[in-house]
Amino acid sequence: MAGCGANNAKGVLSGPESRGVLRKISEMLEVILKRMDSLSKLGNSTDSHRLEELSSALDRIQPIGLVERIQAIAQNMSDMAVKVEQILQRSMSNNKVREGIFGQCETPKDPRYPDCPSKMDVSLYFFNSFFFK
Prior knowledge:
This is (spotted green pufferfish) hypothetical protein. The protein has two domains: 15-102; 107-133, no CATH class. It has four helices and no strands. It has helices at residues 15-41, 47-60, 63-102, 117-131. It starts with 14 loop residues before the first helix and ends with a helix.
C-alpha cells in the first residue's frame, strides 16, 4: 500500500483517517452522479462529448488508490472486530471466575435453612452417617 497507512506498522488507517477517506469517496461519488445527471439532461450534445465528460469525472477518483484505501479501511474494521471479540471473551471469562469465587455456596450451618440444595444433600449424608450408623 504505497502512500497509504504510513502512520503505523501494519499499514492500516486509523479511525479518523478512515472517516476522512470515506468522506472523500462520498464527495467524489456525488460529483460523478451530478456529472452523469447533467450529461443525461444534455440531449443535444454529441456522444463523444458525453464520453469525455464521463471520462474526466472518472479520472478524478483515482480508482487504484481508492481500492487500496477501501482495503485498508476493511482491514482496520476487521482488526477492531477481532479486538472487540477478545475483550468480550476476557470479560466473560473474568465474570465466570468471579462467579466461581463468589457464587460457591458454603455448607449450610443450619440444615433447616440451606443456602445451597446440593450442599444440603451432602451435609445430610454426612450427618446421617455420623449419627445414625
